[in-house]
Amino acid sequence: MHSTLLDTITARAAARFRVAEQGGAVLFVSVLTAIAAQISVPLPFTPVPLTFQPMVVLVGAAALGSRLGMASQILYLALGIAGLPLFAASPALPQGAARLLGPTGGYLMSFPLAAFVTGFLAERGFDRRYPTAVLAMLSGLAVVFAGGLLWLTITSRPAGGFSAALAAGFLPFIVPDLLKILVAAAVMPGLWKITGKTAR
């Protein structure tokens, strides 16, 4: 198993400082996820806004690895559930725990698992080359869409079911999200080049 980017950066730190640095990295990715939520574009034909969150979730997970990447998203959700205004701004959808019961709840609840999947692949060196970084992030994105569509299908019954979920939560977003992944996947190999430790 390969080291993550975070492991490499913190490798020379003493054990007590390494734990603090890991905690800081988890908090940093959580904050970035919250910031990305605020950069949202509401669409008139769906209750699901277009945001940069998936890109941040997946790049953060690739840098932190499976466990810490998942922890960063659990922390983000916990803070949002506690009532902090960290979810995407919306005139119709509430902040707090009620957001998870709404149409975007499935996407949000899938973030920890998506982060784990992408981080797991990064721990095996997928993030060190562009083609495999794309694959790692596509795997995480698939988890996000699966969670979002499953939740939309459940909450939209009996009015439309899965076809309505596809129209509201997949078709408007797949092309923009794929383009974001193609850009995001270049981040990790670039950072690895800076460290001087690329895939062997």
Structure description:
By secondary structure, the protein is an all-alpha fold. The protein has one domain: Arp2/3 complex 21 kDa subunit ARPC3, CATH 1.10.1760. 66% of the residues lie in helices and 2% in strands. It has 9 helices and 2 strands. A two-stranded antiparallel sheet has the order 1-2. The longest helix has 27 residues. The model has no long low-confidence stretch (mean pLDDT 91).
How are the elements arranged and paired?
Layout: H1 5-10, H2 15-38, E1 40-41, E2 50-51, H3 53-64, H4 66-81, H5 105-122, H6 130-156, H7 161-169, H8 174-184, H9 187-195
Keywords:
two-stranded antiparallel ribbon, 200 residues, mainly alpha
Q: Approximately how much helix is present in the residues?
A: 55-70%
Backbone CA Rg: 17 Å
* Helix-strand makeup class: mainly alpha
Number of helices: 9
- The end-to-end span amounts to 12 Å
Number of strands: 2
Domain module tally? 1
CATH architecture: Orthogonal Bundle
According to CATH, the fold-level topology is: Arp2/3 complex 21 kDa subunit ARPC3
Order of helices and strands: HHEEHHHHHHH
Quote the beta fraction. Answer: under 5%
* Main CATH class: Mainly Alpha
The shape is globular
As laid out across the biggest beta sheet, the strand order is: 1-2
Query: What is the residue-averaged pLDDT?
Result: 91
Main sheet: strands, sense, barrel:
2 strands, antiparallel
Short overview:
The protein has 200 residues and is mainly α.
